[in-house]
Design brief:
Keywords: Iron, Membrane, Metal-binding, Monooxygenase, Oxidoreductase, Ubiquinone biosynthesis. This protein is mostly helical. The protein is 74% helix and 0% strand.
Length: 192
């Protein structure tokens, strides 16, 4: 390699022997789509609230989501998983959801964060159970990644609650609507 080029100590591909390829494909595809959508939600929130007092809080959560997306980009290459064909839709839908919730103010943005992150934490827990049932040793690295990201998503959920998410007008209606959208996005992104 040229001067200053970093060497990677291991291959960018993982051994495919013995893995349940359909399960791993589904997990990585949907998680990549979810982290992509989360990035777009936070981009939308920052477009509206970035210069407000809550801007640094949103930015901090967005920075973690950027790391999550980077990791799933790497895992897609390593496991040779194709992305969902719905990424262009999630690009727009995520930004609109983020900006739209932020137009309701700080509380609206945080209500969106609580709804999305609660759905994602639950989704990650389901994946953890699936991988443990499959073979916890074989999927050790992927389990570590998902557990870490689940914990960080739960932190975002808690930050949303600390920043008055539940004080948003029609909070329960908004939360339910967003979570139904999340369930639909998960279902579609796993399969398409």
């Amino acid at each position: 390699p040229g001067a200053g080029a970093a060497l990677r100590p291991c291959s960018s591909r993982v051994a495919q022997e013995g893995i349940n390829k359909p399960v791993i494909d589904r997990i990585i595809r949907v998680d990549h789509a979810g982290e992509y959508g989360a990035n777009r939600i936070y981009a939308g929130q920052m477009a509206v609230l970035g210069r407000s007092a809550v801007g640094p809080v949103i930015q901090q959560m967005w920075n973690q989501e950027k790391n999550h997306l980077k990791k799933f980009n790497e895992l897609m290459v390593a496991y040779r998983v194709r992305p969902t064909v719905l990424l262009p839709f999630w690009n727009i839908a995520g930004f609109v959801l983020g900006a739209g919730s932020a137009l309701l103010g700080k509380k609206g943005a945080m209500a969106c964060t609580v709804a999305v992150e609660e759905s994602i934490s639950e989704h990650y827990n389901n994946q953890i159970r699936t991988l443990i049932e499959e073979d916890p040793e074989k999927y050790k690295e992927l389990l570590q990644v998902i557990k870490q990201f689940r914990d960080e998503e739960q932190e975002h959920h808690d930050i949303g609650l600390e920043h008055d998410a539940e004080a948003t007008p029609a909070y329960s209606v908004l939360k339910t609507a967003i979570q139904l959208g999340c369930k639909a996005a998960i279902f579609l992104s796993e399969r398409i």
